[in-house]
Amino acid sequence: QVAALGTSQVAALTAAQVAAMTTADVKALSTDQIGALGTAQIAALTTAQAAALGTDQVGALSTAQLVAMTTADLKALSTADIAALSTAQVAALTNAQVANLTTAQVAALTTDQIGALTTGQIANLTTAEAAALSTTQLGALSTGQIAALTTADVKALSTTQVAALSTDQVIALTTAQVANLTTAQVAALGTAQIGA
Q: 5, 100, 109, 142: which has the highest count of C-beta atoms within 10 A?
């Protein structure tokens, strides 16, 4: 029955009414209805409701709506939902939201999405999230993004990840990052990378 509501009616729902909707009702909302929800209504979604959202619905969220999602709700999104986010949506995520993504969600990010992450978001990646990046994802990081990784994040990279860094990315490493490389990571660097 919720699916029969017009966008103005959906916009008029209180946060409490939205939180009381069943997951089936949430799944039935059209992308237009999702777009009509206010940030307070989005913030009121339960984790079960967030998990029920489809990729089209998640893609229809404005950046303001996405930022309004709680970290728990964002964590409840499927990897397919995360992979369907636009680069603008990814760039709009708060640092706290990025830090609370699951490793599976981070691994699901496309190279375009990785490239859209701000240096502030990169700096807020957890060591587990940094370790979850594929070599392809790491390759998509700009030199500025590489320099924004925390020393703990750099130390958490596998030797395979370190070996995959481009010479430009190695040049971008800060002195603090280099000082925190493990001996195994240094050994994994190629001659071209070391010569950089």
A: 109
